[in-house]
Design brief:
The complex is a heterodimer of chains A (495) and B (156). Chain A is built from 21 helices and two strands. By secondary structure, chain A is mostly helical. The mean pLDDT of chain A is 86. Helix content of chain B is 74%, strand content 3%. The chains are: A mainly alpha (495), B mainly alpha (156).
């Protein structure tokens, strides 16, 4: 009965994930942020399995609208559109969706195998980490996120510091001093993370989407259901395994995500293709769809590696997942694998089942999803608004949390509109307490000397990585800016 | 060079926030019985925000920072409509209650998002109004069922 309950939960999660992922504008992060409050009332295994199932489903779901509408359902499916949409226009929509489902399955399985093999040794390695290392790890994670997710480093740094500031709100854990609570009891335990996250990822996205609302009903290409054959599977297997490996590696680096993995996998596959095949990419090549989809689903396992071993989320989805783990009293690291070993195994098994269900859901339900795509944005967005408000309220039955969610939503919207990414902000809120606590503990041990961060090898290596990434991003930004200025000047002279 | 006012506004807002954080942090203890005090981290954050915001202001004024794209007044209205209606919903939720207010909230949101000119041209006004009312009722019922009955959350 217990396992049946988990199976039902995972099935619901995968289907919901595919549904949300397939709707343009609704991302996996938004789906998970909106559903986290519901998981608050579930057992830990059910809750985490549901969220991971949504993650796996949504990563694939994005490909459906990329193939049928030519509009990627999620940013991660942008590369899938390159060959998926031409295939669909040629009347091969069913075939393209089958390829996307099979490649997503292989990519997901490859990443799961790697996650399963490296997570425990890495968690054991985390025993070598003490305060200076944890501080350095948090800072490196944040820096990588800024460098890789923000086009503009100074803006990325601003949002990361905003996140770190929000994390300082509440009673100071070491000396019980009130910080930035303005006397409000609701803030004594710190900024309520889930309402803030629903605001930044759910409500803010909803506002951005409202501006880009489609006036016309979307017209999806027709899907003729065809069952894939063993030969179809064999033809994309090599590409998909490679995509899965690329996705896992990219996913494990904080701040990256499915978009980068899919493009990298697509680009490598195209480069490796024979000359006469190369020209077919972009015109409906099945290997293009396979490369992109295996790449973005490979991220699912990869992003979980730093999450469960060091408590550092790989992307915005896993940042939300970390919040959910903490709500259920699960602290990532070695103790999670030792004390909650059966729970970890169940979660990994849940991911395996999610991938299998996604494969079948993708192949057999493609006609049904084509119908969903005709849903009007005008009807969909109000549902998201109600879920955001009720979700924020339900955690503590607090209207204050609703107000906070709305405020975070509006701030997130304003930041997005002016080119600031909210991902470093949320990562800052998550990693802030780890960074601060370990910074202060390390200074306590060293008697106030900052040299402790540079005399311990792991901490030094991590900080050097952070400095290299940050410096190279700043150099890149100033080069881009100079190039743009030059182009503008030339255009001005020509005019 | 045309200065982008929205970029400047965000940069000035973060600058003011940086100053406020630094000011409040400077009144907190620096050290408590040998432990680095609660002021240290916020002060670093405040100063960093000030410096970065100044950099962003300079970049905006010199045109070296760009906004992701222009939004038309019609598009911006939709976002502002959702914000306005949602704030009103938040303020009225306690006095009026979830079951009565939510259908009205959903209907108001849809009404603001729909392009009524097209609806009138296609003569589907009555159908759209029925759909709005049905959706408002269905969303309220579904959310109430899941949260109040399954998860036992006491909705206002």
């Amino acid at each position: 009965m217990y396992y049946l309950q988990i199976l039902v939960t995972i099935t619901v999660g995968v289907l919901a994930g595919i549904f949300v992922g397939s709707i343009p504008g609704l991302t996996a992060t938004m789906a998970i942020a909106l559903l986290v409050p519901m998981t608050f009332y579930m057992e830990a295994v059910n809750a985490i399995s549901l969220l991971l199932a949504i993650y796996v489903g949504a990563m694939f779901g994005g490909s459906i609208s990329a193939i049928l509408l030519g509009i990627p359902g999620t940013p991660a499916a942008t590369a899938t559109r390159i060959d998926g949409f031409p295939m669909s226009k040629q009347g091969r929509a069913g075939e393209a969706i089958n390829i996307a489902a099979m490649a997503s399955f292989v990519g997901g399985m490859v990443s799961l195998i790697i996650l399963f093999s490296v997570a425990r040794p890495l968690a054991r390695f985390s025993l070598n980490f003490q305060s200076p290392e944890y501080f350095a790890l948090a800072i490196t994670g944040l820096t990588l996120c800024i460098s890789l997710s923000s086009k503009n480093v100074t803006k990325g740094l601003v949002t990361a510091f905003l996140g770190l500031f929000l994390a300082t709100i509440g009673l100071d854990e070491l000396v019980s001093v009130e910080r930035f609570t303005f006397g409000r009891l609701d803030l004594f335990d710190g900024l309520p993370f889930i309402p803030a996250m629903i605001g930044f990822f759910g409500f803010a996205e909803l506002l951005v989407q409202a501006e880009q609302i489609m006036e016309q009903r979307r017209v999806a290409q027709k899907v003729t259901s065809v069952l894939p054959t063993w030969n179809d599977f064999k033809a994309i297997l090599g590409t998909s395994i490679r995509g899965g490996l690329i996705g896992t590696m990219v996913g494990a680096i904080p701040g990256t995500g499915g978009n980068i993995a899919a493009f990298l996998s697509y680009d490598i596959t195209r480069r490796l293709a024979e000359d006469e095949e190369k020209d077919k990419f972009g015109e409906g090549h099945p290997q293009g769809v396979a490369a992109a989809e295996s790449g973005n689903n490979g991220v699912t396992g990869g992003a979980i590696i730093p999450l469960v071993t060091f408590g550092i989320p790989g992307d915005s989805v896993t940042a939300v997942l970390l919040g959910s783990l903490l709500i259920h009293g699960l602290r990532p690291g070695k103790s999670l694998f030792e004390q909650q070993s059966s729970l970890v195994n169940l979660i990994f098994a849940g991911m395996l089942i999610s991938n299998i269900l996604m494969l079948f859901g993708g192949i057999f339900l493609s006609r049904f999803y084509a119908k969903i795509l005709s849903l009007k944005d005008q009807y969909l967005l109000p549902i998201i608004a109600v879920l955001s408000i009720v979700g924020a309220y339900s955690i503590r039955s607090s209207l204050f949390d609703v107000g906070l969610m709305l405020a975070c939503g509006v701030i997130g919207y304003l930041l997005t509109k002016t080119g600031y990414s909210t991902v470093p902000l949320v990562l800052g809120i998550i990693l802030g307490p780890t960074a601060e606590m370990n910074f202060r503990r390390a200074l306590l041990v060293s008697g106030g000397s900052l040299t402790i961060f540079f005399t311990r090898p792991i901490s030094l290596v991590l900080l050097v990585i952070a400095i290299i990434f940050l410096t190279s991003s700043i150099i890149q930004q100033s080069k881009n800016s100079a190039r743009q200025r030059k182009m503008r000047n030339q255009a001005g002279m020509a005019g | 060079m045309k200065v982008q006012s929205d970029l400047l506004f965000t940069a000035i807002s973060t600058l003011v926030l940086g100053i406020v954080i630094s000011f409040h942090a400077s009144k907190m203890p620096w050290s408590c019985s040998g432990i680095p005090g609660p002021a240290v981290f916020p002060l670093i954050i405040g100063v960093a925000l000030i410096l970065l915001s100044v950099a962003n202001i300079v970049l905006s004024l010199t045109g070296r920072s760009a906004s992701p794209g222009k939004t038309s007044a019609k598009e911006r209205f939709k976002a502002l409509w959702i914000i306005g209606v949602s704030v009103a919903y938040f303020l009225l939720l306690k006095p009026i209650g979830f079951v009565v207010l939510t259908p009205i909230y959903v209907i108001c949101l849809i009404a603001g998002l729909i392009d009524w000119v097209t609806v009138r041209q296609e003569k589907v006004g009555a159908k759209v109004v029925v759909e709005m009312i049905l959706l408002g009722g269905a969303v309220t019922a579904a959310v109430f069922l899941v949260f109040a009955k399954v998860f036992l959350v006491s909705l206002p």
